[in-house]
Description:
- By secondary structure, this protein is an alpha/beta fold.
- The chain has a single domain (9-253), classed as Alpha-Beta Barrel (TIM Barrel).
- The chain contains twelve helices and eight strands.
- The longest helix is centred in the last third of the chain and has 19 residues, at 183-201.
- The structure holds phosphoenolpyruvate.
Amino acid sequence: MNKQKRRAIIAGNWKMNKTPAEAKELLNAVTPLVKDADCEVIACVPFVDLSVALEATAGTNVKIGAENCHWAESGAFTGEISAKMLKAMGIEYVIIGHSERRQYFGETDVTVNKRVRAALDAGLTVILCVGELKEEREQGITAELVALQTKVALGGVSAEELKRIVIAYEPVWAIGTGLTATADQADEVCGIIRNVLADLYGAEAAEATTIQYGGSMNDGNADELLSKEHVDGGLIGGASLVAEKFAAIVKAASK
Ligand code: PEP
């Protein structure tokens, strides 16, 4: 299998943006623009927007995801949302291990692994984020670091379950900064992740896994990034909040 045979996935990560009314408005603008997409299109939205997002995208090709979930099914975890709750309301995708969760909310590789496990057990598909800090790239440890993050996050995940894992390579220095990894840098690290998957699950499973790039991807640089062999799509932050920009990225992935 090669890139042409893997399903490209463009996923928006809205972060902590949009009230339910604003979410409806944005999705009503996005859905007609991406209706002919030849790739999977996902909008990952704040918990409070999930219901309205499901309604606004019903009968369209846009799928809805959450931005996080807790590892327990239920219990005394004030303020948290379980994977089971997401699944019960019709959500299919969840982002796990985003660098903002790691940076601001104490997320570690071990808690990422627990959340991945819970999401898979609930029947969700996971968009698993990995990526190095600027200092780590400068130290020359990007490959080791990203490999370790990937391995720990996938601990206890079977080859069959890997089919419900999408990996997003997101260099932390490129997220929300306007700095983008070059297409070659993105391709190199996505390739390293694919090699890790090959070691863990075999070449065929690795070749079948969608690996996205994320980090200031926009309508101007998407074409070049997405043309690379190991870059199968994008996780889009800022540009996913503007319907035309997001749709242009979806178009680039549909070529
Ligand atoms: C993200 O939030 O995952 C992201 C990649 O953000 P941005 O596109 O704004 O860099």
